Amino acid sequence: MDDDGIMRQVNALIEREHELRTARQNGTVAEEDELRELGEVEVQLDQCWDLLRQRRAKREFGGDPDEAQPRPSSVVERYWQ
User: Fold this and answer.
1) Residue 81 falls within a domain, yes or no?
2) SS (H, E, C) the chain
């Protein structure tokens, strides 16, 4: 996935995050369902941002950004924001 594709995914995940919060406020989704799915969305966002950072770093230092690989959730969940 190229940088634009990653950013489209980020925007879609942010939109989903907003939809979940609105649905919870409107009472159309249970709190535990919202929290579960929000957790999943946050991990996916972390993975997208990490992949984008990897691609930019490779490009900056003369590497091939297409060699960047998504890291597992167990890795990116430990990152400080």
Assistant:
1) no
2) CCHHHHHHHHHHHHHHHHHHHHHHHHCCCCHHHHHHHHHHHHHHHHHHHHHHHHHHHHHHCCCCHHHCCCCCHHHHCCCCC
Over the stretch 41-59, which tens digit does the pLDDT of each residue have? 999 999 999 999 999 999 9
Question: What total of structural domains would you count in the chain?
Answer: 1
Residue linked to tokens 């930019």:
56
pLDDT at residue 81 greater than cutoff 70: no
Cβ atoms of 18 and 67 closer than 8 Å = no
Give the range of the structural domain holding residue 31, as residue numbers without chain letter: 3-76
Kindly state whether residue 72 falls inside one of the protein's structural domains. Answer: yes
